[in-house]
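User: I'm putting together a small comparison set for a docking exercise, and I want a reference complex before I start. The sequence is below, and the ligand is 2-acetamido-2-deoxy-beta-D-glucopyranose. Could you produce the 3D structure with the ligand included, as structure tokens?
Assistant: Of course. I'll restate your input first, then give the structure tokens for the complex.
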Amino acid sequence: MKSFTSAVLLLAGLAAASPVQKQSPYEVTQFTASKTHNSGYCTFSFDVSTHGIAEPAHCTASADAGFSGATYLAMIYEGLGKCDNADVTWTFYQPSAVETAPPKDATLNVTINGVRGIYTIPGSDITASLNDPQNPFDNDVSYTGPKAFSITKFVKVEEQE
Ligand SMILES: *[C@@H]1O[C@H](CO)[C@@H](O)[C@H](O)[C@H]1NC(C)=O
């Protein structure tokens, strides 16, 4: 009787945890992100594929980082990032840095069918160029890390209807 109870509890625990643990990686390819020269506008583009979606989804966004002297990439909030597959959504956030500081780590979240993959982009993979020390409005920012990477950390998100 005692072992029966613990077996039931074990099964219940496995059932609750399985959707995220069995998730196959999200493979991101062709990832680009940069701020347009002399502008606050940032453009993003990538493809993402995983087991369970037929073809890679192509995702893009453009957003304003606020001013041309930004040393970080613009935030992409839920709904701003577009994909050609309605089951795929994404967000991006990099904390702002003061002009001379190295870029800070950023987060890219890609949600496919209610499972959110979380990926940390190291600040060292985002290059900020202070082109003119006399001109605080002339900075360039671009992602300079690998164009392809795997997202392997997942959380389940509530379905929002
Ligand atoms: C990514 O997801 C995590 C966990 O749900 C959340 O804490 C974080 O704010 C999200 N980041 C972005 C950029 O949406």
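Residues 13-19 have pLDDT under 50 and may be disordered. Residues 91-93, 107, 109, 116, 118, 155 surround 2-acetamido-2-deoxy-beta-D-glucopyranose (CB under 6 Å).
User: Thanks, that's exactly what I needed.
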